[in-house]
Design a protein that fits this description.
The chain has 152 residues and is α+β, with helices and mostly antiparallel strands. The chain is built from five helices and three strands, in the order αββααβαα. This is Ribosome-binding factor A.
């Protein structure tokens, strides 16, 4: 009988461990507080509110990928529209400072290295919404609903 080996790899079929998820949420909450309270002297971050949507940790908890979304990104009238890459770049430039602040707030054996990335899920969701609003797609969905009602 074959023995199934337990994987600790976050990219495996089992997904991230409870430890990774719990530490990621602790780091996310602490980063939100740091970004709200600390004054980071960078022109790209001046007056910008950033939402930390998710923090994914490596299995050894030494590397954290922080997914962020500038407030108002994707809204045409928002001042952050079109500047997302500059904001992400500025956060990555100041990642050592943010890591230091994080180390003071969290009781962890290691404070992970931080890497910031733009959270593309909001763009994907709005793209899907636009597709559902397309009259051709809507007509196709309504036709399917009518067919399923006829079968019942």
């Amino acid at each position: 009988m074959a023995h199934k080996q337990h994987t600790r790899n976050s990219s495996g079929p089992a997904g991230p461990s409870q430890r990774q998820l719990r530490a990621g949420e602790l780091i996310r909450h602490a980063l939100v507080d740091i970004l709200r309270e600390e004054d980071i002297h960078d022109e790209a971050l001046a007056g910008v509110s950033v939402t930390v949507t998710e923090v994914r940790l490596s299995p050894d908890l030494k590397h954290a990928t922080c997914f962020v979304e500038p407030l108002g990104a994707g809204v045409e009238a928002a001042p952050t529209t079109g500047h997302e890459s500059e904001i992400i770049k500025a956060l990555n430039v100041h990642s050592k400072f943010l890591r230091g602040q994080l180390g003071r707030r969290l009781d962890m054996k290691f404070t992970p290295d931080l890497r910031f990335r733009h959270d593309e899920s909001f763009d994907a969701a709005s793209h899907i919404d636009r597709l559902f609003d397309d009259p051709r797609v809507r007509a196709d969905l309504e036709r399917r609903n009518d067919e399923s009602e006829d079968d019942a």
